[in-house]
Every structure is written in C-alpha cells, then in structure tokens.
Amino acid sequence: MEARYVIQFLLIMIGICAGLNSSAQINPHKIEQVDSLMAQKPKPLLILLSTDWCQYCALQKNQLQKNEYFHNHKDEFYFIEFDAERKDPIDFMGKTYHFRPKGINTGIHELVTIFTGNQSLSYPFWILLDENFKPVFRHNGILNNKQINELILAISKSLTKNSY
Q1: DSSP secondary structure string, 75-97?
Q2: Which domains are assigned to the chain?
Q3: Are 127 and 115 in contact (CB under 8 A)?
Q4: Cα–Cα distance between 9 and 12 in angstroms, integer?
Q5: Tell me: the pLDDT tens digits for 63-98?
Q6: From CA 57, how far away is CA 48, in angstroms rounded?
Q7: pTM (2 decimals)?
Q8: Rounded to an integer, what distance in angstroms lies between the CA atom of residue 10 and that of residue 98?
Q9: DSSP label at residue 27
Q10: Coil, helix or strand at residue 164
C-alpha cells in the first residue's frame, strides 16, 4: 500500500516537472504563418537565421531558452527561427522564395538574402522587422543576454510609443 503512494507521488512530481519544463520552452512561429499572423495582429518580427551545422546557433538557441526576460516579453513580437539552408519553397508577403544551390550540397534560401540585405552573412544572424516588414535591426553573430534584453526592451518601448 505504501509503495503505491510513493509511485503516485513520483508520477505527480514527474508531471509537475514536465509541465514546468514545457512552459519554459520557446515555440517559434513558422515563417509560413507570418502573413496570416500579421493580418490578424501586426507585431514586430524577430528572426533568428541559423543552420543545422552551426554550433554558435545552437548556443544562441539554448541561451534564449534560459532567458527569462525573453520569455516574459515574447507576446510582444513574433519570434521566428529560420534555417538558412532550408530547401522547400516558402510563400512570404505574397511572393514565393526558393532555395538557391551554390555548389554540391550547399546553398542558401532566397529569403536569407532578402532579410540580410547587403550585409555579409555569418550565423547566427538576427533581424528585427517592424509591423510593415521594414528592417529595424540586423546583427551578425551571437547576442549576449544583456543585448537580447535591450533589444526586447526597444521592441516594448516602440510598441508603447505607437499604441494609442
């Protein structure tokens, strides 16, 4: 009988811990959702360009998962993680963009060149677009927690300034 209560207690604790862990997860929006999301409720877009092989990108994503300030303000913008080497076509802002091969098993998605403009590209690459899809911020490389928090604060201030 006592073992039954111990097992029930352990199952409850596992459930609570799993629930806490899942609430801390960042669930980025898919780039394909942006048009419909912006039609429903326009917000700034914060885009993280990365690749599967980029270790710095993995480090940046891990850092975001642990950033409490980011979690607390994630409803103020749409966060998108985009694989720069993604091969499928994507509809974005009424146009279809494609993967462009640059050699054997290498290439870049057209959207990446749209997002980065004329800037040189290294990963991770951050882009902040306003509600009208105009670039407000671009950055090559990792942002530390302080820089991420300052970026989120700037988004919050711009929303406060633009709301009536």
Answers
A1: GGSEEEEEETT--S-EEETTEEE
A2: 27-162 (3.40.30.10)
A3: yes
A4: 5
A5: 999 999 999 999 999 999 999 999 999 999 889 999
A6: 9
A7: 0.80
A8: 49
A9: -
A10: coil
